[in-house]
Amino acid sequence: MQQRISSLVDRIRVLEHELAELLHQQEDKALFTLKGRKVEFDRSVRKAQAKMKLGIFRFFRTSRPQSVLSAPVIYGMFVPLAFLDLSVFLYADGTQAPWLSLDNYV
Question: Is 0.70 topped by the overall pTM?
Answer without folding.
Answer: no
